[in-house]
Write a structure and sequence with these properties.
The structure holds two protein chains of two kinds.
Chain A lengths: L1 H16 L1 E7 L4 H17 L4 H21 L12 E6 L3 E11 H15 L3 H14 L11 H9 L4 E6 L5 E11 L4
Antiparallel strand pairs in A: 1-2, 2-3, 3-5, 4-5
Helix pairs in contact in A: 2-3, 3-6, 5-6
Chain B lengths: L3 E3 L7 E5 L4 E8 L4 H17 L4 E11 L1 H20 L3 E8 L4 H13 L4 E5 L1
Parallel strand pairs in B: 3-4, 4-5, 5-6
Antiparallel strand pairs in B: 1-2, 2-3
The chains are: A alpha+beta, B alpha/beta.
Chain lengths: 185, 125
């Protein structure tokens, strides 16, 4: 499993080189999400972080973690790669990275949504969010379809994504990286 | 009408809808896994209020945080309040309190206030 080797090496290098607040790989559910949130809040509070930055991290983490919780499962017999979440602190910002398997049929839709969000400025994102919320219906898995727009608005940074090949005919591994500035304007 | 009380948890807000004091309060954090189920009794209570002529009500928001799915349900609540307010039986005033440093929450409150035709106060505390 070449990808796994690379990913593990990457994770180890992240753990060694960066200041990791939280690294998790495995099944996601609401209880695990709550534990991750309360652990991170505690750790950040004791680090003396600005309250507003902590709140933004909490906001973005909830959307990213609940997104994985809702979309982590594949219809394949064995899970080739587990979903993951990484929060690392860097000099000027926090990086939040998620990874989860994604069906090849939904890749284009996800790509289009992120590209759309990345192409908009703050005012345009606000207008899109308002309109999308008015038209939104809560999906079967409990989402409102507003997560990417909300994350882009809260972080005020572009969303970085990639789709990696895994040992599956129908799935790729979707990674999403968001960045929260330590200094809020 | 009954007094609707739902205690807060790690991922759901407290709800305190008191027909006697005519104060409807929502406080805390809202990030439930299943927003539809959580907010169903709240929306049902408001349906009942629409049918019952009682008087002036205050909807008081003290939310620290809500996720995007909750944001949709909060819009549904506010639109229900607008129906009640414009429908004639009762009047509604919305008071949205937020931590005055939290500009994300202030902006969220402003956006809601632009969407509903109900007296809407946004108060930084």
């Amino acid at each position: 499993m070449a990808l796994m080797d690379t990913s593990l090496k990457q994770i180890h290098s992240i753990m060694n080189d960066e200041n990791a607040v939280l690294i998790y790989s495995g099944e996601f559910n609401q209880d695990i999400v709550k534990s991750m949130l309360s652990y991170t809040e505690g750790k950040l509070e004791s680090s003396g972080i600005d309250d507003l930055v902590r709140k933004k991290i909490f906001n973005v983490m909830v959307e990213q973690l609940q997104n994985i919780t809702k979309h982590q499962y594949t219809d394949e017999e064995k899970q080739v790669v587990q979903p993951c979440f990484i929060l690392i602190e860097q000099e000027n910002f926090y990086n939040l990275v998620t990874g989860n398997p994604i069906h090849i049929d939904t890749i284009q839709m996800v790509k289009d949504r992120i590209d759309q969000v990345n192409g908009l400025n703050a005012e345009e994102l606000k207008a899109l969010y308002k309109q999308a919320r008015l038209n939104s219906r809560i999906s079967e898995v409990g989402g409102a379809g507003l997560g990417f727009i909300d994350v882009a608005r809260k972080t005020e940074n572009k969303l970085e994504y990639a789709f990696f090949d895994i040992e599956s005919a129908n799935y790729k591994y979707f990674t999403l990286k968001t960045q929260i500035n330590k200094i809020i304007q | 009408m009954e007094h609707l009380i739902i205690d807060k948890t790690d991922d759901t807000p407290s709800i305190d809808f008191n027909p006697t004091s005519r104060e409807l309060k929502i406080s805390g954090r809202s990030l439930p896994e299943d927003v539809t189920t959580f907010y169903a009794p709240v929306l049902e209570w408001l349906d009942e209020l629409e049918e019952s002529p009682v008087g002036e009500f205050k909807f008081i928001v003290n939310l620290e945080y809500f996720n995007t799915a909750s944001s949709k349900l909060i819009l549904d609540i506010l639109m229900r309040l607008e129906d009640i307010h414009t429908g004639g039986n009762n009047t509604i005033e919305i008071v949205w309190n937020y931590d005055k440093r939290d500009t994300d929450m202030e902006e969220a409150a402003e956006e809601y206030s632009e969407l509903v035709e109900v007296p809407f106060q946004i108060v930084g505390i």
